[in-house]
Amino acid sequence: MARARRAVPPSRTPGVRPPPSVEILDAAFHRASLVTPRGETKATRDRLRAKLKVVRSTATVLRHLRLETRRFVRTPLTDFERALIADPFGEGTLDRALRRLRRAEERIRGLAREEERTLGHTAGPEALGARVKSFYGRLASFVREVDPDLEALRAIGRYLRDRPQLESGAPTLVVAGFPNVGKSSLVARLSTARPKIADYPFTTLAISVGHADLGFDRLQVVDTPGVLGRTGRSNPAETEATTTVGKAATVVLFVIDPSDRSDHSADEQETLLARWREEFPTVPILVVETKSDLARRSNDHLKVSAVTGEGIDDLLREIRARVKPTGELPPIEESITEDGSALEGSPSRTENVESPSPARRTARRRS
Asked: With contact defined as beta carbons under 8 Å apart, do 155 and 73 qualify?
C-alpha cells in the first residue's frame, strides 16, 4: 500500500517565500528547545526548563526584530532617501513600520515578564508544559501581527540597496532630461560611472552615480532616468528622476538633444526645462546641448559631444564655477616648513619672535 504523501504547509510551499515571522519563530523555538537546565530535583529542572524556554525564545525574537530595523535605526535615512521611497512605498510607511515593531517589542517583553512570574507559581511538568505552549502561541501572534511591517522594511531595504548612497552634503551634479538624449554618455565622459548606454529610450531605469575630481572636492555625478515631461502623471522611473533633481542636486545639468535622433522635439524638452525652473527655483540649472557632432542650434547653450569630446573641457570649467568647494583649506601655519622658513614678508622664527614658555606651549596643545 502506497504511503500517503505528507501535505506541505502553505508557508513552506516550494517557490513561495514564507512570511518573515516563520523564519523568526522557527529560530526562536529551535533555540528554546535546546535548553539543558541543571537542578537537584526533577521539579526544579522542569520549572527552570520552562523559564529558559520563555527567556530564550523571547531573546531570539527580539534580536531578530532589532536586526530587521538596524539598517534604519543606526543610520537614519537622509531627506533625499526619504523622498525617494515616498512614492513607491507611500508617505510615512517606514516610520509606521518602525513604530509598530517598537510596540511589538514592548509587548513581547511584557508578555515574557508576566509568564516568568506565572511559572514561579506553577508546579508539575504537564502544567508547566501547558504554560509554555500558551506562551508560544501568544508570542507567535505578536510576531505575525507585524509581518506586513517586516515585509515593508525588507522591500524598502532592497530598494535602497539597488540605488547609490549619496554622500550627504557633498556637491552633487544631477544629469537629467528626456529619454535617449545622451545623458548616460555624458555621465560616462564626466565621471567614473559606467552606465548602460544604448540607442533606445529608458535605458536607465534607476539613478546611478559616479565621481569626478574638481580639484578642490569630489563631485558626485548622478545619472537619472529619462523624464517625458507629462504633467500630472509619470512612471516610477520618472518620479525617481524628478525627486533626485529636487532633493539631491547642487547643480542640475539639463541635457537637450537638438538632433533628429531624439523621439522628442527640442521645444518639448525646453518646455520641461521651463517647468523645472518654476518647480525648483532654488536649484541652479545648467543647460547643455548634446550630439553637437550631429546637430547644432544658434543659442547660448553649451554644445558638447560625448562621441568626439567637443565641449567637455568647457563644460567641466562651467561646472567648477557653479559648484562651491566644501573642503576646508589647511591653516596658513601648516604651510610654514619645519626648518623655520616662512611666507615672504613674514618674520622668521629667530627675528623678534617671543618664544612661548613651556607652560604656554602645554596650554596650546590642550586647547
From this structure: no
b (16+ CB within 10 A) / e for 307-339: eeeebbeebbebbbeebeeeeeeeeeeeeeeee
> What is the tens place of the pLDDT at every residue in 254-293?
999 988 777 788 889 999 999 999 999 999 999 999 888 7
3-state secondary structure of 197: coil
Q: How far apart are CA 55 and CA 306, in angstroms?
A: 63
Helix axes 93-119, 125-145, angle to 10 degrees: 170
From 227, 292, 221, select the one nearest 253 (Cα to Cα). 221
Low-confidence ranges of the chain (pLDDT < 50): 1-11, 197-202, 329-367
- Specify the number of domains making up the chain: 2
Is residue 166 one of the residues assigned to a domain?
Answer: no
CA distance 90 to 68: 19
Give the pLDDT confidence of 119-152 residue by residue, as tens digits: 988 889 999 999 999 999 999 999 999 999 999 9
Same domain, 182 and 304: yes
Clarify whether residues 314 and 229 are in a common domain.
yes
pLDDT for the residue 355: 43
What is the CATH classification number for the domain harbouring 151? 1.20.120.1190
CA–CA dist 322, 251 (Å, integer) = 7
Confidence (pTM): 0.76
Range of the domain at 258: 172-322
